[in-house]
Amino acid sequence: MIDVFFQYDFLRQALLSGIMIGLAAPLLGVFLVVKRMSLVADALSHITLTGIAFHFLLASFFITLADIDPLYMGMAFALLGALLINQLRKVYSHFKELAIPIILSAGIGLGVVFISIADGFNTDLFAYLFGSVAAVGRTDFYTILVVTVIVALLLILFYKEWFFLSFDEEQAMVSGLPGKWLDVVFMLLVALVISAAMRIVGILLVSALMTLPVAAAMQWAKSFKQMFFYSAIFGEIAVLAGIIFGFYLDLAPGGVIVVVAVAILLFSLGVKKIGKKVPQPPISSLRKER
């Protein structure tokens, strides 16, 4: 069944890209969930949509831009959105969560305006919204590869620092960690992964890939490192199932990925409720392991 994915370049690229996204997104999602910033993924995904819509708007006036991948404009907007969220969290220091709905609302509003001016939706835009196996080109594959390598390297380099900041930001700052700089780097990583994943999962659904596997992993993990392990496993299962079944059933892969991720979460919750063999540790207990 999976053999056909190695016979055609575009299917092989989609499968390998999905494997990388299925790993990178949940790993960053662990920190987002622990930091109680899950909605950041939603905000940045909508800002990415704004960038994509802006590219299509410009392409309608400047034909030469039609040959340029809209991914780059979406990525630029996502990075800008990440910086704005980080800055707004400083402005509203006592109400940091306000930064997320501000950017999310701005992204939706601007996106709708750009789409309206560009004469509405087209096939390409729908592929970005909900994901498409056929839409993953060689450029997208190499972009996702570079983003995944960057995520892996920075997670290895700054794992302990981000661990400390996730559980006790004030103490981390007092201890001398460059928290502001590390927060900026982390937010930029999240923006890169979201914009890179939109080809596979879709802009409107990519945030689910960063949170649902983590939510399921919390039902099984007994330590912080185990949360990474289970999140990656559940993310890979969801992505591979979504790509394969989405292709054979002619469905948007993003939707199938999210449905599979929800099914994994429901199964995990069911195991805990019925058997109570896998008690969920409180977040505070996970900080014991560094």
Automatic annotation (TrEMBL):
InterPro entries associated with the record: ABC_BtuC-like (IPR037294), ABC_TroCD (IPR001626)
Membrane topology summary: Multi-pass membrane protein
A Pfam family per the record: ABC-3
Gene3D superfamilies: ABC transporter involved in vitamin B12 uptake, BtuC
Membrane-crossing residue ranges in chain numbering: 14-34, 46-65, 100-121, 141-159, 180-197, 228-248, 254-271
A cellular component annotation (GO) from this entry: ATP-binding cassette (ABC) transporter complex
Localization per Swiss-Prot or TrEMBL: Cell membrane; Membrane
Keyword list, A-Z: Membrane, Transmembrane, Transmembrane helix, Transport
A Gene Ontology BP annotation from the UniProt entry: transmembrane transport
SUPFAM superfamilies: ABC transporter involved in vitamin B12 uptake, BtuC (SSF81345)
PANTHER family per UniProt: ABC-TRANSPORTER METAL-BINDING PROTEIN (PTHR30477), METAL ABC TRANSPORTER PERMEASE (PTHR30477:SF22)
Family, similarity comment: Belongs to the ABC-3 integral membrane protein family.
The protein, known as: Metal ABC transporter permease
Species whose genome carries this gene: Salicibibacter halophilus
